[in-house]
Amino acid sequence: MRNDATCGPRVLFMDDDEGIRDVVRVFLSGLGYRVEVVADGGSVIESYRKAIEEGDPFRVVILDLTVSAGKGGIETLRELKSIDPEVKAVITTGFTDDPVFSGFGAQGFVAAIPKPFHVRQLDETLRGILS
After folding, report:
1. Residue 58 sits in a domain of what CATH number?
2. Domain tally for the chain?
3. Up-side HSE of residue 36: CA atoms within 13 Å toward CB?
4. DSSP string covering 64-91, please?
5. What's the predicted TM-score (pTM) here?
6. What pLDDT digit, counting tens, does each position of 14-54 carry?
């Protein structure tokens, strides 16, 4: 098992936009996070299970509310909760008028970040969750 104190917290990020995934991977890695990025909810579930099996679970999962194909954030979080009821998930979306965004806690999310976001904002949110 890896030591998060020396390797950084492990974060799983889901977004269907490859450009966003690439930018988030580069910036969060540069800030010391161990980041895996995926395009849809099915990939999140697969990666999350694998990480648990390997004894190196993700500390936080960041989910896009809607993706063009596959499971979006709400459906994905429901499945994650069945695997790990203690999962810490953040919702991100450009649809800030969506009731899920303003009521993120009722859906089981620990935080919500509006798009477009600054990586600094994402880092501050992650630090708050991990502290």
Report:
1. 3.40.50.2300
2. 1
3. 19
4. ES--SSS--HHHHHHHHHHH-TT--EEE
5. 0.92
6. 999 999 999 999 999 999 999 999 999 999 999 999 999 99
